[in-house]
Design a protein that fits this description.
Radius of gyration: 18 Å
Helix content: 25-40%
InterPro entries: SAM-dependent_MTases_sf
GO biological process, one term: polyamine biosynthetic process
Keywords: Polyamine biosynthesis
Shape: globular
Strand content: 25-35%
Protein name: Spermidine synthase
Largest sheet: 8 strands, mixed
Oligomer: single chain
Strand order of the largest sheet: 7-6-5-8-9-11-10-12
Pfam family, one: Spermine_synth
């Protein structure tokens, strides 16, 4: 047994609170637990993949979700694509923000879709369209529409899906965006000069911003146009949209930075 295996075996990954559902598919376990006023989704019992306030399901809980939602301030969407469902935090928040918005959601695991529907109050609305598919396959298919925002949050129990950092994936997302649209990407590190992601972003987009959430998640915002808007104004706009989502975005908006290409 390796040192890593011994360490994992010694740790207690039991979800806090009462486990109300367990399911298993080819990717592993899906665990739903309740603790106080919160419901949590975990994959294989390790990290919180999603968290919902039971008394206010539409209000985002995790800071990285709040950070992703700040892009709504720069491009109010009539249509958004969400890659990776999890417990549906983005879906609930965006639907509450604008019930008339078209939301297309792509999730690889049918069991995750089933759990989200049963335990995480997904909106039952004809304008919320769920696709059970691999994100790469969905993006490779002929485009039927363009989106003002694309949110990519592709994670397994243990790691980010590496396709999110590839040039092919980013360029495919870019082709699905409206002219002023934004890709919003949940990544695990700031794109450093010399990395594949840095060069891939440089090839696909003209303007890239990022924000490091308190959890360490790095949210990357990318658009195809040259954005001349001062960073100070973008931060103010992001903070101002917070009350619409029922949360404070001021402390997160101040962390937004530009990624400069050499």
């Amino acid at each position: 047994m390796s040192i890593v295996d011994k360490l994992l075996n010694s740790l207690d990954f039991s979800p806090r609170g009462q486990v109300i559902a367990r399911e298993e598919d080819h990717c592993g376990e899906i665990i739903v637990s309740d603790y106080k006023d919160y419901r949590t989704l975990r994959f294989d019992g390790i990290c919180e993949q999603s968290k919902m306030c039971i008394s206010a399901p539409q209000v985002p809980v995790h800071n990285y979700i709040k950070t992703m939602l700040m892009a709504v301030a720069w491009q109010p969407p009539s249509a958004a694509l969400i890659l990776g469902l999890g417990g549906g935090s983005l879906v609930r928040a965006l639907h509450a923000y604008d019930p008339g918005m078209l939301l297309e959601v792509v999730e690889l695991r049918p069991a995750v879709v089933s759990v989200a529907r049963r335990y995480f109050t997904l909106p039952t609305d004809e304008r919320v369209i769920l696709h059970t598919a691999d994100a790469a396959d969905f993006l490779q298919a002929p485009a039927t529409r363009h989106y003002d925002l694309i949110f990519s949050d592709l994670y397994s129990a243990f790691a980010m899906d590496p396709q999110q950092g590839t040039r092919t994936f980013l360029e495919q997302c870019a082709t699905r965006l409206s002219p002023q649209g934004w890709l919003v990407l949940n990544y695990h590190e700031v794109p450093d000069e010399g990395t594949l992601l840095y060069h891939s972003l440089h090839c696909a987009f003209k303007t890239v911003l990022y924000c490091v959430a308190p959890s360490g998640n790095v949210i990357i915002y990318a658009t195809q146009g040259h954005l001349e808007t001062p960073l100070s104004l973008l931060r103010r706009l992001s903070a101002a949209v917070g009350p619409t989502f029922g949360c404070d975005l001021g402390f997160l908006s101040r962390k937004i930075e530009r990624l400069h290409f050499s």
